[in-house]
Design brief:
Shape: globular
Strand content: 15-25%
Distance between the termini: 34 Å
Oligomer: single chain
Number of strands: 11
Number of helices: 5
Order of helices and strands: HEEHEEEEEEHEHHEE
Largest sheet: 5 strands, mixed
Helix content: 10-25%
Radius of gyration: 17 Å
């Protein structure tokens, strides 16, 4: 593995070339890149132990089949996708289809430590106004660990494959992953990457990606998590960022801001509707 792939702390400046390339591919493929409010699950909650995003849109659009529903904004997969587009391909490895992604699988044995996080994505058909779940689709989800490192790529964890996993959507169009809250590393707002595929077979063969996007977290939740043990680096990194200045989310994040509830002691849940 080349040394430049280990240096995640170059953050946004390293992500931007990949961002532009991926967005151009989506554009040429005819995928809409301009998000409209209508399908995010970001109801507000101001309690101390339960927080959620407050961008002003409502999860009710997904259940009611809003005519304004738009596909999830297309974003870069970044330099550490693990899907074969930048070196290693974890999607073809036995064991990648799983719910709990906190530990590595196969010959690797590492485990990611941090505040527990359960992520639920609901994949819906945008053409139906977000009213029809996409049963039988698949989601590949990955993110950095508590130290801001990406398994398979970052120095010290190149032999690990934790915080990566694939699941097939159920009758409700949902997938749920058990994970840990990701760090805030230099130059990027706290986020989770995901790719949607038409089927589990497509995902495990790393072919025919339907959508590539990112999930964002609300600031109050991040501040609370990063005040806990193990997230020291994230505190300073967060102080230099905002959703409005982040190079990925600055053009709009209403559809990508997850509803996040819970506490450091009991763990958090993050939910997001993903129209494709």
């Amino acid at each position: 593995m080349s040394e430049e792939l280990h240096d995640h702390d170059r953050g946004l400046s390293f992500d931007l070339p990949t961002l532009q390339r991926r967005k151009m591919i989506r554009l040429l493929a005819g995928v809409g890149l301009v998000p409209l409010v209508g399908c995010s699950s970001d109801d507000s909650d101001n309690s101390a132990s339960s927080s959620s995003s407050s961008a002003g849109s409502s999860s009710s659009a997904a259940s009611s089949g809003s005519a304004e529903c738009e596909t999830i904004p297309s974003e870069t997969a970044g330099p550490y996708p693990g899907d074969g587009s930048n070196g290693v391909n974890v999607l073809k490895e036995s064991g990648v289809v799983r719910k709990d992604i906190t530990s590595s699988f196969g010959s690797a044995s590492g485990k990611a430590e941090g505040v527990p996080l359960t992520v639920t994505l609901t994949v819906v058909d945008a053409a139906s106004g977000c009213g029809t779940p996409k049963e039988g689709a698949a989601v590949y989800l990955w993110h950095c660990d508590r130290d801001g490192n990406y398994s398979l790529y970052s120095e010290g964890v190149t032999e690990e494959n934790y915080l990566r996993g694939v699941q097939e959507t159920d009758a409700k169009g949902q997938v749920t992953f058990t994970s840990i809250f990701p760090a805030c590393y230099t130059g990027r707002w706290p986020h989770i990457h995901f790719e949607v595929y038409g089927s589990l077979e497509d995902a495990t063969n790393a072919t025919s990606i339907t959508a590539t996007s990112q999930l964002a977290f609300a600031k109050d939740v991040c501040d609370t998590v990063y005040a806990s043990d193990g997230y020291d680096r994230s505190v300073q990194n967060m102080s230099q960022l905002s959703l409005e200045t982040d190079g990925i989310f600055s053009d709009g994040y209403d559809q990508q801001l997850a509803t996040t509830k819970g506490s450091v002691e009991k763990g958090y849940t993050a939910t997001l509707t993903v129209p494709v």
